[in-house]
Amino acid sequence: MGIENQLTGDNILVTSLNKLVNWSRSNSVWPCTFGLACCALEMIATSLASFDISRFGSEVFRPSPRQSDLLIVAGTVSKKMAPMVKRVYDQMADPKWVIAMGACASCGGTFQSYAVLQGVDQIIPVDVYLPGCPPRPEALLAGLMKIQEKIRTENLNQRPDFKPGERYETQVPKVELIR
Amino acid sequence: MDIKGIVSRLEKTDPGAIDRVSGENEITLNFNDFNKAMQTLHDDKSLCFDMLVDIVAIDRIDRMPQSHRFDLVYILLCSKDFSRLLVRLAAGEDNEVPSVSSIWASADWAEREVYDLMGITFSGHPNLRRILTWKNFEGHPLRKDFPLEGKDFDQQFDTTSIEDY
Amino acid sequence: MAEGKTITLNMGPHHPATHGVLRVEVELDGEIIVKATPYIGYLHRGIEKLAESKNYQQAIPLSDRLDYASASANNMGYCTAVEKLMGIEVPKRAQYLRVIMAELARIMGHHLWIGTHALDIGAMTVIFYAFRDREMIMDINEEIAGYRLTPTFFRIGGVAADTTPDFIKKVREFVKWFPKALQGYHTLLTENKIWTTRTMGIGPISAKDAINAGLTGPSLRGSGVAYDIRKAFPYSSYDDFDFKIPVGEKGDVYDRYLVRMEEFAQSIKIIDQAIENLPEGPVAIDSPWITNPDLVSVQTDISELARRFVLHTKGPVGPDKEVYHAVEGAKGELGFYLVGDGTEHPFRMKVRSPCFYLASALPRLLVGHMIADAIAIIGSIDVVLGEIDR
What we know:
The complex is a heterotrimer of chains A (179), B (165) and C (390).
Chain A lengths: L2 H4 L10 H10 L11 H10 L22 E5 L7 H10 L5 E5 H6 L20 E3 L6 H16 L27
Parallel strand pairs in A: 1-2, 2-3
Helix pairs in contact in A: 2-6, 3-6
Chain B lengths: L2 H11 L4 E5 L3 E4 L4 H10 L7 E9 L10 E8 L6 E8 L4 E3 L8 H12 L2 E3 L42
Parallel strand pairs in B: 2-5, 6-7
Antiparallel strand pairs in B: 1-2, 3-4, 4-5
Chain C lengths: L6 E5 L11 E7 L2 E8 L7 H7 L6 H5 L6 H16 L5 H30 L3 H21 L8 E2 L2 E2 L5 H25 L3 H7 L7 H6 L5 H4 L7 H4 L20 H24 L18 H6 L1 H12 L8 E7 L4 E7 L8 E5 L1 H7 L1 H5 L4 H11 L3 H5 L1
Antiparallel strand pairs in C: 1-2, 2-3, 4-5, 6-7, 7-8
Helix pairs in contact in C: 3-4, 4-5, 4-11, 4-16, 5-6, 6-11, 11-16
């Protein structure tokens, strides 16, 4: 069926860590359930049967930002909503990517008014901008493929979250029982 | 009920409340008798305007100073024969319009919206605060002297500047 | 709780079950909601202010983005309001095409409602079927208008283009197919034991309270008030069609569900009548200062070219007048209060949004129910935040 049928015996695959990590990351980009306006409907349509985002390994829309890798800013970001968008982005664990879906999230779009943030890139870094009002589901898939392409060509120690010399030490928090 | 019937009924209970009758279904109410006339429009069995569909506020800055700055249009609906009535009220910048939220529950948010976007205050409203914009928003955006892109459109946006309820 | 302590729980503004960026602060006594405060404005885009800076034609795309789940129904509201302001009578064929588009949009809106509402309560399958059928309508939109979700097919004085043969074919196919699909939704939900237990007797509102709170549309009809603007104040040839207004009795979540399910059937009935009796004739009025001249005369006649130029740079002029016009949107009475001042821009455009008042009735609906029922109730009134916040 798959590659395992072609191979016999124990095998060794030689690759660089960069490639291996990027390959696995790029095929399991989990988006955050984050719909703001009209674009959210196209995002829902993308995730359902007709367009089927699961072909790209991204069907797992996580309700919690802690578990997601990709923030699809789907819709108009109003100034009132901007702190929440930033908070959701800050809560996401590294590595993380952002798609600004639609004209509104990219640059304010048709809503050049007192209440609308003129582009979500004013508050969070954006990787891929999608034009359209709203973009078609195919456009979102294309955006996702661009993200995958970006992940695959990325150098791990040049990522913004890379801190040389830093090691992760697990600290067990001290638990006190309150009676 | 047609406009003539409404006017004659209202004249009987609140004489002098109607300033002007215009068009098919529009009356202009006197500011002082406003609350009482609205109560009659709601309570009276033959009038029975039991739904407040919407409150529209219009900034008539172009007609100042001949007339008051704001026009408030209350759109009422009678649920018996589904007839509409537009009730107009002129309000100045310093006028406190009597709230009708005790008569129609839908007026609660409608008046908050008018206060938020137009800056007209309502006396007797239980919870008059901003609804669509945020807590520390300056100005009232639908007024004609408010710039479309806001007062701070040329400054870098800072998320900490937004204070919410 | 025994000590009378309550917990305050914040739902939203980004919450998977609130249908957009609605935020509801609920105060819980155990699992029972004792107080609920909705907060809105997280999608406030200033559409009313923006419309004042655009001319009448340019403001049509803004209306699409009000209730984006059923975009054409908003176009209908805005365009008919402007036509009432300008005193335009639209040709019959355009009116019928508008009715088809608006009813398709209503079905689209209800598709989103049934999919997400069922998903929230726990029936996951429905959304797949609903969006499969929604894609068919999107295809129809794309066929005639070139865009899927927000077609902006309406123009002041008519519609943008005449039908294509494929459009008629696709609509007929949909009309033929959809009753079967609807039967499928019924099979999945209507007599489903879990569904009825989760919805029957939840969030009831009496007719008197519903009217007082300003509810309109299916949420009001669920309480037994047969107020439908298509019948009460007919517009765009709705009196030509034979359809019924479904009403509920108790006004609970299940009744609102049944009303919307019946509206699916009535909408498809209207579309069937409209597509079969589609009159011949132009699809827009021929008025020198409102509609575009045809492309052939633009290329041959200098005065037509000048007219097109003026139309595109200035736009049609609205008289110094005020009108209120309402249509039956997918969620209820969608009204536009337009104030003209003799220029090309509306002096003031106020949108009477049905969802605004539906959301304002939430405290009344939620109090006394369990927190899990809050999700069912928010789903059943079917709010779209683009329309609430404008």
